[in-house]
Amino acid sequence: MNSATNNRPERRTTIIARELRRCWIAIAALSETRRADEGQLEEEKGGYTLFWKGKAAGEPRIHGVGFAIRNQLISYLSELPVGISECLMTIRLVLANNQMATVASAYAPTLDSDEEAKETFYTCLDETLSRIPREDKIIPLGDFNGRVGRDQHLGKGTIGKEGNRNINSIGALLLSKCAQHDLTITNTIFRQKNKLKASWRHPRYKQWHLIDRWTVHRLIHSMMSIKLKRKTSIHKQQIRPRLNLESQEETATQQPLPASLGESLQQEYPDDIKEHWRWLKSTILDTCKNILGCVQKTTGLA
User: Fold this and answer.
1) Torsion region of 79: left, alpha or beta (phi above 0 gives left; psi -120 to 50 gives alpha)
2) What DSSP string runs through 111-152?
3) What is the pairing mode between strands 137-143 and 100-107?
4) Please, where are the H alpha helices in the chain?
5) Rounded to an integer, what distance in angstroms lies between the CA atom of residue 276 and that of residue 274?
6) What is the rounded distance in angstroms from the CA atom of residue 273 to the CA atom of residue 279?
7) In order along the chain (302 residues), what is the average pLDDT of each group of 10 residues?
8) How many angstroms separate the CA atoms of 27 and 30, rounded?
9) In what order do the strands lie in the sheet with 27-31?
């Protein structure tokens, strides 16, 4: 049928692909896709392939996440996108110098969601980030439904002073996870107008929000330039000591370890979240080394 006489509306995926192409977007994180199950769809004319993860067809679907990836980049995927839940999806990209990047598409619960939903999401996010290989570049995208504010002292190295408005409870959860996994919230670092950092302005209170409001929202995008260093030889890398976990099975060491940890952690916590995490991690590791000891590396010929 001639498109000029066809009254059938365009598919939403076609509209999305056309807008992404117009804005020169390579990878887009999609939220509230509301598609059932898990799948993919190629918009050949639009030049993008869309991947999604949602609930089963028989369940109510109010969330759903996905990716829209330019077709030329599909060959750079080490594997197809992995749907973890209706609120979280990841992909791995092959970069230069034989390095990798893991990109996450997330849709976090809103501020008025029940506490169980928030805990479930951030537990899943934490487990997902923990499973990513340490050498991967990590790029979380999506809608986290929280404000982290502009107080850079709360997360030194995690947020900057160019954030929007004040932190809320969801933002505090996000900030703690970013500090734990050594991530930086990039839209709080660069100085620019509020209208370029947010998507919607409240008509009465004149406050900027990074939220979606159907047709009145603005597309928020980020351009990234990643500097990649060549991997050093394993002989030049610092080898971390391995704890002697076998000694934990001995009755003599089962009691001192919890007691020693309790004594070591009875201190005031630093105000900075990142410093707090570093202090907690180093304290636990040092205590375990003192009690359990480390496995001695043996060398020789068989």
Assistant:
1) beta
2) TTS-HHHHHHHHHHHHHHHHHS-TTSEEEEEEE------S-T
3) parallel
4) 12-22, 115-131, 169-180, 194-197, 251-254, 256-264, 273-292
5) 5
6) 10
7) 52 88 91 90 90 89 91 90 94 89 94 91 94 92 86 82 84 90 87 73 74 57 75 54 63 61 68 76 78 62 39
8) 10
9) 27-31, 65-70, 48-53, 38-43
